[in-house]
Design goal:
The protein is of the alpha+beta class. Helix content is about 25%, strand content about 35%. It has a single domain (about 5-85), classed as Alpha-Beta Plaits (2-Layer Sandwich), CATH 3.30.70.
């Protein structure tokens, strides 16, 4: 399946864990399209952010059961990508911070 680079990367994941990974290990986390593979993710990050990607790890996040009043439902399943950047490269999500 051919995806546009901007459709492969849905949004950055900014959590306490991802912030620590970015500071210590030069890794960045993204929520990506469910059908995107590691090569598409690598190419999208390199083209959009103008950085060099060394490694990509992906995780399929399973849906969780949630209660909506008296009805049970589920959150959507999604895919997470952890991208290792070359030493010296950096992606800043907060400018001026």
């Amino acid at each position: 399946m051919v995806l546009d680079h901007y459709r492969v990367l849905e949004k950055p994941l900014i959590t306490e864990k991802s912030t620590m990974m970015q500071e210590q290990g030069n890794r960045v986390m993204f929520q990506v399209h469910r059908s995107a593979n590691k090569l598409q993710i690598k190419e999208a990050v390199q083209r959009i952010f103008k950085v060099t990607v060394l490694d990509v790890n992906t995780i399929n996040v399973k849906p969780k059961s949630k209660r909506f009043g008296r009805h049970m439902g589920q959150t959507k399943a999604w895919k997470k990508a952890i991208v290792l950047l070359k030493e010296g490269d950096r992606i800043d999500f907060f400018e001026g911070a």
